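#random but structural
TW: two for the price of one
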Amino acid sequence: MTTLYNLQTLLLKKCALKNLPSNFEKLVNLRHLNIEGANLLEGLPPRIGKLTSLQTLSNLVLGERSGSGIQDLGPLSQLRGTLCISKLEKVIEAADAEEANLIDKSKLQCLLLEWSRDLDESHSRTREEFDVLNMLRPNNSLKELSIKHYGCTKFPTWLRGPSFPNMVLRIENCKSCTSLPPVGQLASLKDLSIRGMAAVKNIGPEFYGEGCSQPFNSLETLSFCDMKEWEHWIPGGEFPRLRHLCIGNCPKLLGTLPHHLPSLENVEISGCGNFVVPITNFPEHCKLQIDYSKAVVCKNTVDFSSLRFWRLSTISEFSCRIEGFNMGGLTNVESLKIGRCEEMRPLWSNEVGLLQHLPHLRSLNIEDCPRLVSLVAEEVEEQLPSGFVHTVKEIRIENCAVLQSLPKSMMYNNTCLHSMELFGCCSVTHIAIGLLPPTLKILRIQGCARLMFLLDDGGDNINSCRSTSLLKRLDIMKCGSLKCLTLSGELPATLKYLSISDCGHLESAAKRLPHNSLLEEINILDCDDLKSLPMGLDNLVHLYSISITGCPNLVWSPNGDSLPQT
């Protein structure tokens, strides 16, 4: 390969290479080298610094050979784009890092500096690593910098120095650092991600930069993740342009949040089991996702007319009457997800009326609520106004083991319901009585062990199901008690797709099919007790696919029906 003297581009991404040729420097016209994902045991060959035309070098993996190899970057003055330098623990002398001359590489836009994830205890991770990182100061034109697995307890001073235009900064898994660098002084910092800083217990003045009058003046995105020991965030400055805030998997966090967040648009808080989320810190129009936190409270009555709770889950002290919160202000909430709320029973009772305050609710998703018996308490059901929650288009309920039924008011008065999914609700015996929701088009049911039938339509009113429903797709899986779909034996004429699988006690999908049926596809799988198919198969002029597998007791068509010629 090294005789290809005019070669300009060499792409070896994810190739299972252990080494490159020792005379690799002969490719003097090489401009682009991508070795990302190639496990080069000895790193790049020596004398790669002679490839002075090189513009793209995806990563420099430092090897075991004599000399660190990092000094070979020095003559590569044309490098641009993204450069990852990994296994920096191989650098023995800080002077070698200085020879890399990163500070003069003005065309580099993204720089990743990585030490190995797991180093043995004999490896010194103190002064040497600090000196190496200090010598790897990049050019001020850099737009993105990542530092991973750095082992010293402090960061070099250049990290608080001149601003980097539009800079993105990521600091990950620097587990020995007890405090964060004063990056609040970086006036143009827009995106900051701090992850896996296991020794940091408090974030305070040192983070903002002591003496800095306007810290984080340009910051728009801030993320803290996997901070196992973090306990307090001590307010020390404002975030005037912060739009996105994410705090994840910080189990010991107890403190508060910054008070002045006027531009905040999205908040994600998850895995903070001791953290009480203070809603008063968030402006109107803010979109919230709160997952596995202790509580959601605010001390003063606040009316957030546009606040969007788009996810509430695993809040151990969750109450629909959020403390001090004017629920009547949630008039514009369109999507609500509630999950793993162990104490939640109905969403509507004499004491709690969350659904009442969501007049524009479009999507309702409930997961893992083991004590949720019903969405609406029985004593309240008859008192609900006509058209209650008539705006809901999508309902998804999963793993609510004691849920027995869906409220009549939601099923019959709803004029918008388009899709409904029930997964793992093993106490539900039927979906509706009398009629399916008139606008329902998609119905998916899985793992509802006690479901005996979808619709209790009285059995004698054979026109009720097919004349009012717009159902187009029906999927049923793993409902072991299901015997029939409707007591009348009718299916909606609008149904186009029917799929039934792993329903061992199902004897019949339907007695008959309407003459104007629109069925296009039928799939029936592993229904051991299925004995017959519906009458009227020969009328299915739109049918193009039928698949029946694992139904040992099925008699094809006892009435002599044949499949349509289409």
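TW: number two ↓
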Amino acid sequence: MRAASPQGAKAFFQMLGHLPSGRPRRRARTRVGRWLGMLAGRSVAPPHHRLVRQVFFQSLGGLYLIAFTSLGSQVRGLYGSRGIVPIQELVSSKRLAAMGRERYLLVPSLFWRDASDKTLERGIRAGQVLSVAVMLGLAPQAALMGLWALYLSYVSAGREFLSFQWDALLLEMGLLGILTAPAGVRPGPGRHEPSAAQVALWRALVFRLYLGSGVSKLKSGDKTWRELTACNYYYETAPLPTRGGWYAHHLPPRFQKLSTLAVLTLEAAGPFLALAPRPLRLLGFWLFAGLQGIIIATGNYGFFNVQALALGLWLLDDEALRRLLPLASPRPAEERPLWRTVGGWLLALPFLALGANEILARFNRPRRSPRWLDWLEARARPLRAVNPYGLFAVMTVRRPEITLEGSDDGETWREYTFRYKVGDPSRAPRQVAPHQPRLDWQMWFAALGSPPTWLLALVLRLLEGSPEVLKLFAINPFPEHPPRYVRAVLLDYRMTDLETHRRTGAWWKREELGLYLPPLSLAPGGTTSRLQWYAGD
């Protein structure tokens, strides 16, 4: 073959518009080099993350504000002295008292000294104030310390109602936030660039969050994921469905199968984009953001999806972020002292080691971990420092629901109406996230198994007529006095088809399956309320 002449090459590039005028060859090489550098993950300038850090911490403050405000509307009904599971009863239990100082490690909480209703409410208000401080950039490091300690106090003592994955994720994010937030009263974007160790901590969390969800589905052996039919059931059996989820349920079966495949692919392979070069990492940001947007439109998962969106910011750099938001460039960063870099890695290594061990444990058979790692895990577990994640590993294919009913005579029964849980077939599904009605959520879990102890405590409070608990419901059918009897009925719900909905307006069809709890009443006598079975006449 004959080598191309320089004149021929020049004409070719001019034809493509790469060499429009003088000094063409140098300009072409610069553009090609820049393009290849982008493919290799290199930006034109070294990546900066000070604006990313600033916007993320503003978002983290907003997440804490949502979490505390949502919990505040329910805290007395769930945890007050007349609530379903009072925190005061937990911290004063003899079983924990017998553990001595070990109980403070098992249940790290600020409420050991005082868990009164007023203290629980003051903790909520303090959390809201500190959240706003973080959003405004006021002493973010100190404010995040207070937020983490407060929220951990509720979660540690909150048992079932504060045991969701987004509660653990918020605590993990809060702890990492303390380690990576800029110091000072009004630090703005910070004097120094986030270190490589700090950026690695956040990207590793993104990686674990999504990979954990994907691996848990693949390893569960669940038939619906294996046969790509999970989305056929997902929208109908979601704990708190939305109107968007109702319509998505009626999409064609082929689309549902493709959706299931897309979720598995994105959660099993997509997490590696978080650790990839820049162009692939930016692609990961958009893919994950799209996934969370779809989930928000079709399901109510508290503030979890907003958390995931905020975490995704760490897949960007300042240059990419300024393309999304109208942010001014900050003043040039000061050179980071060597001791800050070394200290950052020393703080990051335990979290990275625990996170890597958690991921490896999903793939390997039970193995013996190093003694120092077991010790570290035991200390980190009560603090929710590093947590496993993985939602919907097994898809529920039916939708049992519990209805609570009260009666004065044991013959005529009236239903307690929940604020958000599926009930009246003619009531449309509601969009409630990022607020999480925790009683409504736990009622969905309770219907999948045998009656939990907290449900018996709930029945007891209804028989007592606890006003704090009754505020958790939309309608109290006994406004003048509490009922003599309360029972729980189990029903099976199915979404109606489009034609039935157009004709009748019903969103659901339901069928009674039987009693979940037989009629219960208060036992006579004594100073402490107790339950007894009611056998009828």
